[in-house]
Design brief:
By secondary structure, the chain is of the alpha+beta class. The chain has one domain (about 5-125). Helices cover about 50% and strands about 15% of the residues. It contains five helices and five strands; from the N terminus they run H-E-E-E-H-H-H-E-E-H. It has helices at about 5-20, 40-50, 70-80, 80-95, 110-125; strands spanning about 25, 30-35, 35-40, 100, 105-110. The strands form two sheets. It has a three-stranded mixed beta sheet with strand order 1-3-2. Strands 4-5 form a two-stranded antiparallel sheet. A hairpin with a 2-residue loop joins strand 2 (about 30-35) and strand 3. Helix 1 (about 5-20) packs across helix 2 and helix 4 packs across helix 5. About 25% of the residues are buried.
Length: about 130
């Protein structure tokens, strides 16, 4: 796993929590109170820190929160693909450790879902 990617996510979580006073949550990328973001998941934190929340997002119209542009921003900022994000969210949001079985019946833990679990334990607000 790329250390730059994990560092970017950790730094973004710390920044939005400590500097902006925004909670780190699971689930939705952004939680709104009126037109103000009050909580975010780690990928949303990366987008916020990069200053790339699209202006056309309207908290009164939730369908704009899942627009394809946000996935592209997340992938570009982190240097990852869709599958990386899926594996991260499986660990972070679901505490699910993805595993693979080799042809020699050895179990190998997926490092991205493992990182997601670790980050949830570090930042997630219950």
């Amino acid at each position: 796993m790329n250390i730059k990617t994990t560092t970017t996510i950790r730094e973004a979580c710390s920044y939005v929590r400590d500097e902006l006073g925004i909670k780190i949550i699971g689930g939705a990328w952004f939680e709104w109170n009126g037109d103000k973001i009050v909580a975010t998941d780690p990928i949303g934190a990366v987008i916020l820190k990069a200053g790339k929340v699209p202006k056309e997002i309207d908290p009164k119209h939730p369908e704009t929160l899942s627009q394809p542009g946000l996935i592209k921003v997340a992938k570009d900022e982190l240097g990852v693909d869709h599958f990386w994000l899926y594996r991260f969210w499986m660990g972070y949001d679901r505490f699910f450790q993805i595993k693979a079985i080799t042809d020699k019946d050895q179990e190998i833990k997926d490092d991205v879902s493992e990182f997601g679990i670790s980050l949830a334990r570090e930042f997630l607000v219950y």
